[in-house]
Structure formats: structure tokens, C-alpha cells
Amino acid sequence: MIQKIKDTFFGFAVGDALGVPVEFRSREDIAKNPVTDMREFGTHHQPKGTWSDDSSLAFCLAESLATPINSTKKAIYDINDIANNFVKWKYENFWTPHGRVFDIGIATTDAIKRLKKGENPLLAGGIDEYSNGNGSLMRILPLIFYKGYLFEDSIKRRFELVSEVSSITHMHFRSVFSCFIYTEFARILLEQTQKKEKQDKFLAYQKLQVLITDFATEFDFNKTEITLFDRILKNNITTFEEETIKSSGYVLHTLEASFWCFMKYDSYSESVLKSVNLGEDTDTTGCVTGGIAGLFYGMNTENNEKGIPKEWLEVIVKKEDVNNLCERLYDLNF
Questions:
Q1: How many CB atoms lie within 10 A of CB 197?
Q2: Which residue ranges are tagged as binding site for Mg(2+)?
Q3: Would you list which residues are annotated within the binding site?
Q4: Angle at CA 99, nearest 5°, toward 175 and 258?
Q5: Which residues touch 222 (CB under 8 Å, ≥6 apart)?
Q6: Stated pTM of the model
Q7: Residue 295 and residue 10: Cα distance in Å, rounded?
Q8: Are 126 and 170 in contact (CB under 8 A)?
Q9: For the chain, what is the mean pLDDT?
Q10: Which candidate, 252, 174, 164, 238, places its Cα nearest to that of 206?
Q11: How confident is the model at residue 72 (pLDDT cuts 50, 70, 90)?
């Protein structure tokens, strides 16, 4: 399990870092000089291997899940502690790559300002339809390695956990449900490894579609909202043409793009490079795709040419800190 944690964390950090230099550039513009390797400078003028707010906030979540309370050496879930880490990130540069925040979304900014003023974390996130950016989806993945989520048999309780963590910044059902589809897909892929089954992303995808559809029906969620997820839940996402796959900061676009890139391509590098070359919100699409692709393909070795390339891992900022975080998270939860 420790290796899967590292595969996942470095997977999203590498995808994020690949996207940082070309963030906000259009698909057409990037197509003139496609991203094929780690770059430096660009949009945010950052050194090679620099991850953004996406990974920072994911690490903040993981930090809370990897920190015992009162030296009990037991994993805890404390929504206030998670929220406090987000505040520390924005105002004290906690878990930033180079000691300062250089990128942050509007909804996340507003929510963290409310948190700093003492708002209840479960009520801090935006609730209206226009507060459905990808700011909670980009940071949710570490939750799957919290034992209270991974080993929880009740899908209702797993949904509640995802809803709480998303709601710190994004409270609308659409954002929460996007996060839940993503974490459940990751959990199913991880379950294949735990049960020593053959890793099959297509079988996992089919299982996810049935699981989520049945769950939505059982709890009678808003049908209008659920219908928005039909391209993922009722279709094979890979059958859609590239021009129909959007890559803006809208949560549903990011979810669809990450599923499309991961399911359509056959290695970590192919999936993540495609996600970045879709343009616009490149760091987040790269991060979300990279997390699931890292979990599935692992790291590149002599016996695994489909994994995360070593040359990309070598330039990742604060890689020793990330490695240490993974080990602490494992020690506390497994």
C-alpha cells in the first residue's frame, strides 16, 4: 500500500507540474508546440517540476490525515484540522513548493477567507450553481488512503466523508458528486490490487458506473443533476470525440477530461500529456488525470515502461517532503 500512496501522490504532482507552465493557454495555441516533457517558466514563471495549488491543497489534506492527535498514533479525521491547513497554506505558505502561493481559484479564495473569519468548514464552500469550479476535485484524492474511507463498507458514509471534505471550499452537489465519482473509481482500482486481482481499468469503470448509478437511484438524488453525469455514467467516455471534451475550470469538464484521457490512453505519460495538451486549466486536468493514472500505472521501472517516467520524478519540487508525507500517511492508516 505504501507504494500505491507514492504512485498516487507523485502521479498528481507530476501531472500538475507538467501543466503549470502552459496554464490558461488554448488547445490551439498549445498544439503549435505540444507539451512532451517537463518545462520551466511559462505562465507562472516557475522552475521545472513545480506543482501548483492543486497539489498543495491535496498535500494539506493528506497532512491532516497523516498527523495523529495527542501522540495516539491513530489516524483521525478532523474537518477543522483539514480546514486549518488550507488557511495555513493561503496565509502562511504551508505546503507551497517555493514558499509562496502563486495560483488560487476564486471559489477557494472566498471559502478560505470565510474559514479564517471562523466559519464552520462544512458551511464555508460555495453553494450556488456558479460555484462549481474544480477546486475540490483537484485535492480530494488523498482521502482514499484514509482508513475510515477505504475500509468503510457503507457507501453512504463514504459519500458523506467526500461531501464534507469537498464542502470546505465547494459545497454544491455537482462538485461533491464529481469528487465522489472520482474517489470511488480510485477505490475500485485500489481494491483490485488489494484483492490481487488483475488490474483492469475497463472492468473498474463498468463497476463504477453500476455502483454510482444504483447509489444515486437508491438515495433519490436530483435527477436533473445526475443527468449531467450521463456521459461518464451511461456511456463509454472514450467514444466521444476530442472536440467534445472540454478542459476549462468547470468541475464537470475536468472530471470528463480526466476520465477520457485515462481510459483512452495506455500509459501514464500518454494519458497525462494528452490531458495537459487539451489546454486551458492544464495544471488541474493534469493533476486529476495524473492522480488516477499514477495509482493505476505506478512508477516506471525495468518491468513497467507504462509508469511515471523517472526523469519527471527527479525534478519534482520537495520530493523528499512528499515521500515523507506518504510514509507518515501509511504508518498512521495501515
A1: 11
A2: 52-54, 281, 283-284
A3: 52-54, 281, 283-284
A4: 30
A5: 173
A6: 0.96
A7: 9
A8: yes
A9: 96
A10: 238
A11: low
Angle made by CA atoms 288, 170, 205, in degrees to the nearest 5: 40
Q: What sign results for the dihedral spanned by CA atoms 98, 100, 102, 103?
A: positive
Domains and CATH numbers, the chain: 2-333 (1.10.4080.10)
Residue among 243, 274, 244 at smallest CA distance from 258: 274
**39: Cβ contacts below 8 Å, ≥ 6 apart:** 18, 21, 22, 48
CA atoms within 13 A on the CB side of 232: 29
Residue 146's region, left for phi above 0, alpha for psi from -120 to 50, else beta, is: beta
Q: Report how far apart, in Å, the C-alpha atoms of 32 and of each of 65, 177, 243, 277, 314 are.
A: 42, 35, 17, 10, 27
The lowest-confidence range among 16-30, 154-168, 186-200 is: 186-200
How would you label 277-289 residue by residue, b for 16+ Cβ within 10 Å and e otherwise? Answer: bbbbbbbbbbbbb
Query: Which residue in the block uniquely carries the three cell numbers 455514467?
Result: 233
CB neighbour class for 99 (10 Å; exposed up to 12, middle 13-18, buried from 19) = exposed
Q: Is the pLDDT of residue 258 over 90?
A: yes
Q: How far is CA 117 from CA 3, 108, 114, in A?
A: 39, 14, 5
Which whole-number Å values give the CA distances from 323 to 64, 91, 327, 328, in the listed order?
15, 24, 6, 9
Amino acid at 169: T
**Dihedral sign, Cα of residue 185, residue 297, residue 237, residue 252:** positive
